[in-house]
Design a protein that fits this description.
It is built from 2 helices and 7 strands. The protein is mainly β and 130 residues long. Among the domains are: 34-62, no CATH class; 66-71 and 82-125, no CATH class.
Length: 130
């Protein structure tokens, strides 16, 4: 599984660059997020500049949320042939990205999620699966 398309490597256009995900990991993290419980209100003033009503600060409540932090590393090759010839030394660049993964029972596997994320980015939206 890989994607292929036009890649800009340091100003040089590579027509059939071959990109293959080499690493993927997904970490489910529980963390606290402050959520507004009551909206705050700004102070209001009389025409003479005196305070008519005092400002009321917003009230926040901490809520636990689960965040699925996923990361991928993909190797970029000038072509599939060069990747097949030597997948270690023929890497011209590495792509290292983070994104929100899914861990539901119906979710696609992590590698597919990684490729789908790459193809959702403008730089790789015209790439094809190979």
């Amino acid at each position: 599984m890989a994607i292929q398309g036009k890649y800009n490597f340091k100003g040089i256009e590579i027509d059939n660059a071959y990109i293959r995900v080499s690493h993927f990991h997904n970490v489910v993290v529980d963390h606290v997020v402050p959520v507004i419980k009551t909206e705050g209100k700004d102070a209001t003033y009389n025409e003479d500049g005196t305070i008519k009503t005092e400002a009321v600060p917003a009230v926040y409540e901490d809520q636990w949320q689960i965040v699925n932090n996923a990361a991928l590393i993909a190797n970029v090759y000038q072509s599939k042939a060069l990747r097949d010839a030597n997948p270690v030394t023929n890497v011209i660049e590495k792509i290292d990205l983070s994104f929100t993964g899914e861990v539901k029972a119906t979710s696609k596997n992590g590698v597919i999620q990684a490729y789908n994320h790459l193809k959702s980015l403008d730089a790789y939206k015209d790439y094809t699966d190979v």
